[in-house]
Amino acid sequence: MTETTGSTATPESGNPEGADGAAETTPADESRRDRKRGKGEKKSGKRAKKGVFARLALFYRQIIAELRKVVWPTRSELVNYTTVVVVFVVVVMAFVAGLDYGFSKLSLWIFG
Question: H or E element: which one contains 86?
Fold first, then answer.
C-alpha cells in the first residue's frame, strides 16, 4: 500500500486513524489539540488591546481600501446600464398594467 499526500493513514500501521477501534493518543497530542481549539487560554492579541475608536478607525480604513479595489463604470457605461434598467422597468410595468386591465374587464364581464 502506498501512502499519498494528505492521507489519514498512519505510517506505523497503514490504517486510517481510528479504523481499528484502538486509536491511542499521547498527552502531547491532547495538549496540542487543546491549544489548537483554544481550551484553557484567554483570548489575547491586538484585537483585545485596541480601543473602540481604534477599531472604528481600522474599520473605515478597510472600507476605503476595499472601495479603491472596485472597478467603477465609466460615465457612458453608467448611462447605458441606467437606460437598460429604466426601459426594462417600463416594459414590465406595461405588461402588468395590461394584465390588470384585462383581468378587471374579465371579472366585470363574468360577475356583471
Answer: helix 75-111
